Amino acid sequence: MSFRNERNLYKRKCDATNKDIISNISPDKKYKIYHQDYWWSDKWDAIDYGQEFDFGRSFFKQFDELLKAVPQMWLLVAQNINSEYVNYSANTKDSYLIFASSQNENCMYSRWIMNCKNLVDANNCSNCENCYECVDCINISSSKYCIWCVDSNNCFASYDLMWCNNCISCSLLRNKSYCIDNVQYSREDFMKKKQEIKINSDLLKKTIQKWIHRSQYKLNTENCTWEYITNSKNIFAWFEVENCENCKYITNALNLRNSQDIDFQAFDDELCYEVLWIENTYNTLFSYWILEAKNVILSFTCFGWNPNLFGCIGLRNKSYCILNKQYTKEEYETLVPKIIEHMKKTGEWGEFFPSSMSPFGYNETVAQEYFPLSKEVATMNNVFNWSDYEALFPVVAKIIPASKLPDNIKDIPDDILNWAIECEVTGKPFRIIRQELDFYRKHNLPIPRRHPDQRHLDRMAFRNPRKLYERKCDKCETEMMTTYSPERPERVYCE
Fold first, then answer.
1. Averaged pLDDT for residues 261-273
2. Would the pTM of this model clear 0.70, i.e. be above it?
3. Would you say which domain of life the source belongs to (predicted)?
């Protein structure tokens, strides 16, 4: 996690063209950064930075030097269209400030969304369309303020619904329509009462407090432990896993087999260990952002069909390379075992790169979201880096406090696009873009009063921490494992 800076974006120069770009690596850091168009071009080749392995020095020291020499991509993106302000995202079209996502169109201010269209302020949703402020939802449409809803439409401020339509402030319903507070209404009465209800996050909070909770949130699983696991078998820990089998200690994975210790975005992979962001790979070890490869070890950002790489950075369509230096198949197969033996002696073999090598400060990464640390603790014994860089706020002539915004979207003029809004929580200014304003008008939604970063934290607060607790079922008193601590007031039932 300390290698994942998803949300902190900075203005800096492309080191190849000197043009202004946006990057998740701040300008004070000593890395070469290229815009993706130049990075993917044939105007340079990472193989030119190759170096011989020095058995008199540690592997990580040599790799860190190579990491600072080889140009990095401005953002971790691939095959996007008209989506300059996204990160850790691929196959994205006409989207803005979405992170850790793939296969989306016309989406904004969201994280870990897959195959979605017209989503705003969402977290961990797949195959959803025309939704707002939804978390952990699958195949829902035209819904707002929903959590853990599946195969449902036109649902609002609801929690744990399946195969439902037109429900408000409901929970634990299956195959229901026209319900409010889990009470059945006729269509006519439902539509009348809907006009009287103020649908917002406060109503969702009341819904959550009112109803029963599952010990763990899983769907179509067999022998799986922990939370947000769907269509999977033999999974032990952790979260946000779909269509996986025989895996341990993984997050954000899809179609993964026989793998362990993987954090964030593993798609269609097998026999992988200690990796971060891989796609269509086999036998990938201790590596970061590897696409379409086989037998890659201790490498960064290598793409194309790259079989047999060791300690490489930024290579495309190469094979049998060590520290970006090309070898023959015979030379490679002779040298790699010797380097591994050297690393065993230095105590470097068998683990992912040390956090001290991360290009990011701990406070810039998702690690700070899930496991917050103070600067003093994080930097103790040089375990983690810390960033003190503060980007200057853009100069804005007109700022309006959130409290002065009209409640009705019909009262918001186009001129709001020329103003900055002062967040009601942090005081941090933010702006509305045209695409966003059109969405609010179409769906009759008020302008947000909070900065996008604060809205992200608000959604994260709806999700339980990444911990398991022993607790008794509030119905039958059976001992169970759950992400709800025993001290919490919610009523939690075993499966």
1. 85
2. yes
3. Bacteria
